[in-house]
Amino acid sequence: MNQDRLRFDLADLADEVTPVDLRDRALRTSRRLGIRRAVATSAAVLLVLAAATGTALAIRPDGSAPAPAVPSVTSTPPPVEPTPTPSVEPSGTPSSSREPGTSPGQPQSVLTGTRFYLEQAPTRSRIHAVRGTEDRVVHEVVHSGDGCEANTVTVSPDGRRVVWVQDSTDNNMSGVLLIATVGKAGARTFAEGISCLGSRPLRWQRSDLLMVQKKNGQSLLLDASTRQPVPGDPGQETDRCWSVDGTWLAAVAEGTPYVTGGTGIRQYTYTPPKQEADKWGGWEARSVSTDGRYLAVGWIGTDPSRRDGSFAVVDTTTSKVVDLPGSGEVRSVLFNADGTVLLRRGTGITVLDSTFTPLGTVTEPAPTRSRALLAYLP
Predict the structure, then answer these.
(1) pTM reported for the whole predicted model
(2) What is the DSSP letter of 282?
(3) What is the pLDDT of residues 45-72, one digit of tens each?
(4) What is the residue-wise DSSP string for 157-213?
(5) Domain 107-377 CATH (choose: 2.120.10.30, 3.40.50.300, 3.40.50.10540, 3.90.228.20)
(6) In contact, 196 and 189? CB cutoff 8 Å
(7) Residue 110: is its pLDDT beyond 70?
(8) For the chain, domain boundaries
């Protein structure tokens, strides 16, 4: 009887007690303890960092405070597709893969140097320096008309000196040779009794030697620095033309044309087109490559004229005419110190490499087309 009553009392007590999940309680207790440990550890780390910072401030030589420490956060950003970057060619450097026919808006891509042009007017001659799209008048020579001045104004290959023949009063197509510095006023007497006949009466050997022809027909090589004749110059070749660096000479001796680099003579032959030859007084070398192999030939006018008239290139090793690229009348051919060739036609200049392969073409503005191309400085 007592046992039954005890069993019933225990059952009633169990109904009044709320069940408890001891596993869940244990997990929550463990999580709280972990958080407390993490906080305690972080506080300890901060104390260590503060102590280290204080030590650094104490020992820093300049006494300046370092930048505050920034918490390091590591994250993994979502993947991003990279934006392709187009390759850019350096400005002013011609590409080896550039196609012929460069846009006129970018002349610097094929003509990085300075071109010197001659503009003629009834009472003056102006020298223009053209670089890229910039066109500047760098020198002016005033004269009385179509005399010696109009036919002889030219610049040295380095663009520093300008020379011309001042017409004499007796009007015998000779006069006083004057020399000046490009861009500066004033001129000095270089020589007297100099003839101004021919299509190119004044010819440079480099930028310090100048070949002229006296009114008595004698050829004379003058030193621009000393204004004196060059010792040892033979003086008998009247049709002389040098490469721009002065190392190769094209001339005529006893009716035979030749080129020489100083150690030997290479003779060649050339027969101009018969249908054109009758209009002129013959032909002559106008420009020579720096290796002496090629030269540009042009007509000799029957009267004083600034007409360049270069129309062909001859290979002096074979006496064959070079097949120049492009079409249209060739106005001038200029061999340069950097190995390039300027092939000038009616509307522009095609730049060729040493093998006569086109590198690009620059269209010349209308005012420039009527000017004579005197020199090119790379």
Answers:
(1) 0.69
(2) -
(3) 444 344 444 443 333 444 444 433 333 3
(4) TTS-EEEEEEEPTT-SSEEEEEEEETTSS--EEEEEEEE--SS---EEETTTEEEEE
(5) 2.120.10.30
(6) no
(7) yes
(8) 107-377
